[in-house]
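User: Teach me something about this protein's shape.
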Amino acid sequence: MQPYGKSLLTVSFGARGALVRLWSMTGGVTWDAHIPAVGASGAGAAPPAALITGGAIVVAWQSTVRAFHAGSGELLWKWAQDGATMLALLTPSAPSTAAATTGGAAGSATIVVPPVQAFCVSKDGDLFVAALEDGPADKAAKGSKPAASVSNLLRGGKVSPRTRLVVTLDRTHVAMVDGTGT
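Assistant: First, the predicted structure itself:
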């Protein structure tokens, strides 16, 4: 659960997928979105990671990252990495110049999603981060987007999909905790 202005965001998951729901302060549902499970079941998957940023709600679960319009719940874009497990989402401390110059004009209906970093574990056990940034093509396609960059952080198959990344309250730093709690 995360507060969003006068709303509350909840993200839950089960065998059939993840449910993203924005609640009004009066208790009514503003919108909800279903993210289908990849493979046979989502019940054993790591929990979804959610980030509220720049008029959008970004959710990472299993092998996809999706950005939803915070007001309507409309899917703005998605990014998928086959066989990867999404662990955490962060906002970079210094957005790139490209991200700062793309998007709609002030007051327009276009939502610009600030840059997001998705921390993932590959099917081979490598930890990597993908930088996801809005671009002009994303507005037209409203579909899959390429990552602006992908950087390997830890190679050699040492990271388990069960690894947890603990994110700081300001969502700018992350600490890795393995299955033994170290």
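Now, about its shape. The longest helix spans residues 136-141. The helical segments are 97-101, 136-141. If you'd like, I can walk through any region in more detail.
User: That's plenty for now, thanks!
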